[in-house]
Design a protein that fits this description.
about 150 residues; mainly beta; BH3618-like; two-stranded antiparallel ribbon; about 35% strand; globular
Length: about 150
Amino acid sequence: MDIATTKFATVQIEPEDVLDFPSGLIGLDGSRKWVLLADGESDVLGWLQSTQRPDLALAVVSPRRFVPDYRARVYRRELEPLQLRCASDAQILVILSQHDETITLNLKAPLVINLERRLGRQVIVNDDQPVRHVVDGASVSLKKTA
């Protein structure tokens, strides 16, 4: 199946590559179907591309690449819709943003994904994590290549 994107042109994906976020993402409620694309130049960076909106692609990374002791502490009921067998089966990603020359990670609202069931959910962590954790810009570039 082909999906049109404004950042990566047309991308061919398999139907089983689609991730369903039934509750949507914060501020993006209308987009529930996404695909995770590898970055063409960086093994650190990925892109969460909406299959419903060609203009919507979010830069994502594993938070542990930049914050090794990061833990997403959430209430168990927040994870129930993901149908995880155990919490360690979850893939955790965070959204990167660029503010002028600064690259930040949103550690407060990570994406939790059950890759086996292709289900995802954005959650708000219980502890005191920053919405804008500054990272070294040299370690990741947000140039859009998938």
